[in-house]
Every structure is written in structure tokens, then in C-alpha cells.
Write a structure and sequence with these properties.
Number of strands: 20
CATH superfamily of the largest domain: Zn peptidases
Helix content: 25-40%
Strand content: 15-25%
Radius of gyration: 23 Å
Structural class: alpha/beta
């Protein structure tokens, strides 16, 4: 199997920065007026349905933010709303440098679409912004309208203050990261590279600060990510009368295959990114957890230790490819054996493996020649084979990214280690990486490990985490813009 290596200089840089003690001066914090605006923007975005459904419209959200920038006095040519579909328009905002410069811009990237949420599943309306018990509730509060709102608020604050950077700062808010036919990041890179071309990209759709019962553990910066892949698994059978059930009906065949998948564990793996992550994390942990982390880092990894750590889903997904059934459909009548049963299997593929390799492996796991396993693209196109694309190669280290990121993070969360990580999901970083633009994932959002509700029920964000991200993005923008 092919493996890739994180450049030794990046691993060394990350370890060095994680251990560094920066001389801290107080960060500027948002005023009551700035916080009120930031909260209002967050509320507005949560209450605009931007799902890829008949009720959702990304353009509505982007147009609302465009209006805020235009009302604030930004030039129309620096606030561009564009895209290939009327409902999937992207917003690109530019704060121009004070004078012509050879320095390429810095791009902040955020997707505006969210995953569908059903009111019947939630204790609150997912498309109403609700504050209670120290949290903001609503679809997108974690993924990722929190960062969208924080960045919009930051750019508006910089403009209000008359800030003139030494290089252009760009904000791109895009469509269809969560799925759909019109991925905005991909479309902008392919069709309007001049609007989003940058020295490097910060994508808050990944990374952040991990908390364990309030204790700050580590600050994660995405250096690579898994490959997202969907598969359609289909069982077909002649069916028959439900009064004469047979063990080979389509539903039984499909559920038997899915039970095999649920019982299967993909092989344990580490790469240089995850190795660096667990090396840093082991220094923060105690007891059996710390011992197990050191054991998996040995030349011959202790698989029993890996099994114990795998009980924590966030650790398990750092060790291996994961696949899970996410949707089911079967049958045509209540009184007939199902002639067709179908499932969607969603996989997050460990770097070094391709979607086609995993498609073939799923067929081996199911071990049923009557089942058909096909690949489903992000646009919903179903094909008999899958792509060979394997992973995002980690970007080279850039001091101008890591130095201010670490310094400002440690000013907010004193002493926290900053470490490269592998994003267990997938993000739009891949489109910029493939275009040769280094992309780093960091949200400056602090979350409890066991309270990751992105894509789930009652998604919520600690109020305090939002304010800290506001302070981070303001200070970081000015640092990379040349304060």
C-alpha cells in the first residue's frame, strides 16, 4: 500500500511551535457593539435555510452577506456574487492592500451550505437561532456558519476601522461542500482563479481546540484529510408473496451484508500527520490513555492499545478507513417480498487508499456475488467504478501561518500545544490543494470531544467559543495582513 509522508520540516515545525513559549500581550477583544453585530450575523445565517433541498438556497445566505458589505461601503467590484446556478451563488469579498504589492493574497474559505435537519428530530427548530444554557443552537452552529459569521464580522470590523493591509485579504463563502452538483470552491478555482488565487488558504471547516471536561488538550491544524466516498449497495430478487417468506429476499441479503460491514474493522494505520498528532497528545494525556498512545507509536504498534483507544470515535477515525451505512430503501408493497433493497454506504478513506480500492474491498467484505456495489459521486452520479484519487498531500510549512496562529491561539488558551492533524471528514481544502495552493484547516473553535454534533441532532456551539473565535480571526487577519 502506498503511504505518503508529512515533510519532516512540517513535523519539526509543528513540534517546535507546540513547545514554544510565546511572550504574550493581551489580545484586542471585540467591543459590545462588535459582538452585537457578530451575534446578529450568526443569527441571520442560521435562520437562512441553505440545505441542498427544495427549501434551501445558498444564494439567499450569500446575498444577505453581500448586502451587509455593500451597506458598509465596500466597493461593488470587491463584493462579487457569482456561480453556475441561481440557487448556488458564491460570495467573494476582498479587502485591498494599501498599496500595490508583489505579495499574493491570503484567502479565508468557508462553505455556506448545511446538512438537512428535521424539526421532528430536534428539541428546537434547527433553522431558528436559539440561545440557552450557555449554547447557541441551530443547524450550522458547528458546521460551519459559526466561522462564516465570525469571518464576515471580522472583515466588516476591519473595514469599519479603515484597516489597510499590506496584502489583499479575501473571504470566499461557497456552495455545496456538503454535497450537490455545484461545489463552489471547485467552481471558483476552475472558472475564476483570479478571484481566489492566494499564497495560502485558511479553511475553518476543520481544526480547532479539543476540550476534555473543560480542560484544554490540544489545538489541531489540518495538514491532510481523508477522502470522502459514497457507495450504492443493491440487492435484487424476484420477490414474491409475503405469506411465503424466503431467506434470500432482497432485504435479508442487504441487511446481512451491512451486518458484516458493521462487524468489520479496517486495518490500523498511522501516517506522519497522525503520528505527530498522537505524539503531542500523549504528552497531554494521563493514565491508560497516555500509555496506549505511546504503545501505538512503537515500531511494532500495540493493537490491543489501538483497540482500547478506538472506543473513542475521534481516535478510531484517526487510525483507519471507516465505512457506515447512512441510508436505506427497500420494497414496493407491504404484502410483497422486496424485489430491490438499497443502501448508501459512506466511507472516509485513510490517505493512501483510493475510492476504487475501497469499493472492491466492500465487495470482498460482503462476499455476496448477488450484491452490486457502485460509486456515487458528489453530484449523485452512480457509476460502476470509482476514482483513483487518494489524498490531499500535506502542504509545506509556512512560518507566516504557524507563527501567528500558534501565538494567538496560546494567548487565548495559554500553553496549548498546536499540532498538525488529519481531518477525519473531508473539506473544500482539496480543491485548492490540487490547484497548488497550500491550505490549512483551523477554526479557533473550542469543543468538548464528546459534544461534536455537526450533522447531528441539536447541533450547538458554546457561546464562549464563538467569542473566542471572533477574537482569534480579528488578530490573525491583522497579523497575516501586516499589522
Amino acid at each position: 500500500m502506498r503511504r505518503f509522508a508529512l515533510p519532516a520540516s512540517l513535523a519539526a515545525l509543528a513540534l517546535c511551535l507546540a513547545a514554544a513559549a510565546f511572550a504574550q500581550s493581551p489580545l484586542p477583544t471585540a467591543s459590545a457593539e462588535d459582538r452585537a453585530l457578530a451575534r446578529d450575523i450568526f443569527k441571520q445565517l442560521i435562520e437562512i435555510n441553505t440545505t441542498d433541498t427544495a427549501l434551501g438556497n445558498v444564494t439567499t445566505g450569500c446575498a444577505a452577506m453581500q448586502k451587509r458589505f455593500l451597506d458598509a461601503g465596500l466597493a461593488a467590484e470587491d463584493v462579487r456574487l457569482l456561480g453556475p446556478d441561481a440557487r448556488k451563488q458564491n460570495l467573494v469579498v476582498r479587502i485591498r492592500a494599501a498599496a500595490p504589492t508583489t505579495q499574493k493574497p491570503v484567502l479565508f474559505l468557508g462553505h455556506m451550505d448545511v446538512v438537512e435537519a428535521l424539526r421532528s428530530d430536534w428539541s428546537t427548530d434547527p433553522f431558528q437561532f436559539v440561545e440557552k444554557d450557555g449554547y447557541y443552537y441551530g443547524r450550522g452552529t458547528q458546521d460551519m456558519k459559526d466561522s462564516d459569521a465570525a469571518l464576515v464580522a471580522t472583515f466588516l470590523r476591519l473595514h469599519k476601522e479603515g484597516y489597510k493591509p499590506k496584502r489583499d485579504l479575501i473571504l470566499a463563502l461557497t456552495a455545496d461542500e456538503e454535497g450537490g452538483k455545484f461545489n463552489g470552491a471547485d467552481w471558483l478555482v476552475r472558472n475564476h482563479r483570479e478571484l481566489v488565487d492566494a499564497a495560502w488558504v485558511l479553511n475553518p471547516d476543520s481544526g480547532g481546540v479539543e476540550l476534555d471536561h473543560g480542560r484544554t488538550v490540544v489545538a489541531d491544524v489540518e495538514a491532510t484529510e481523508k477522502v470522502y466516498s459514497d457507495y450504492q449497495v443493491t440487492a435484487v430478487n424476484p420477490g414474491g408473496h409475503s405469506s411465503r417468506p424466503r431467506p434470500d429476499n432482497a432485504i435479508y441479503e442487504l441487511t446481512a451484508a451491512l451486518n458484516k460491514l458493521a462487524a468489520y474493522t479496517f486495518p490500523f494505520e498511522l501516517n506522519e500527520v497522525t503520528r505527530t498528532y498522537f505524539t503531542n497528545l500523549a504528552a497531554q494525556e494521563t493514565g491508560q490513555t497516555a500509555a496506549d498512545m505511546r504503545a501505538i507509536l512503537a515500531t511494532s504498534p500495540d493493537l490491543a492499545a489501538a483497540a482500547r483507544l478506538s472506543a473513542e470515535p475521534s481516535f478510531n477515525s484517526n487510525f483507519r478507513t471507516t465505512c457506515v451505512a447512512t441510508r436505506l430503501a427497500a420494497g414496493h408493497a407491504n404484502n410483497a417480498l422486496a424485489q430491490t433493497a438499497q443502501a448508501n454506504v459512506n466511507c472516509r478513506i485513510f490517505p493512501g487508499h483510493s475510492p476504487e480500492e475501497i469499493r472492491l474491498q466492500l465487495a470482498e467484505i460482503f462476499a455476496d456475488p448477488k450484491l452490486v456495489v457502485k460509486y456515487v459521486s458528489d453530484a449523485g452520479v452512480v457509476t460502476h467504478s470509482a476514482p483513483d484519487r487518494k489524498a490531499m498531500i500535506p502542504p509545506a510549512p509556512i512560518q507566516e501561518v504557524f507563527e501567528p496562529l500558534t501565538r494567538i491561539t496560546q494567548a487565548i488558551w495559554p500553553g496549548v500545544k498546536v499540532t498538525p492533524v488529519m481531518e477525519n471528514g473531508a473539506s473544500d481544502s482539496i480543491f485548492f490543494a490540487l490547484a497548488g495552493i497550500p491550505c490549512y484547516g483551523y477554526s479557533a473553535i473550542a469543543l468538548e470531544r464528546d459534544d461534536d454534533r455537526a450533522h447531528g441532532q441539536d447541533e450547538r456551539l458554546p457561546v464562549d467559543s464563538y467569542w473566542k473565535s471572533i477574537d482569534f480571526f480579528y488578530a490573525f487577519s491583522k497579523a497575516v495582513g501586516g499589522d
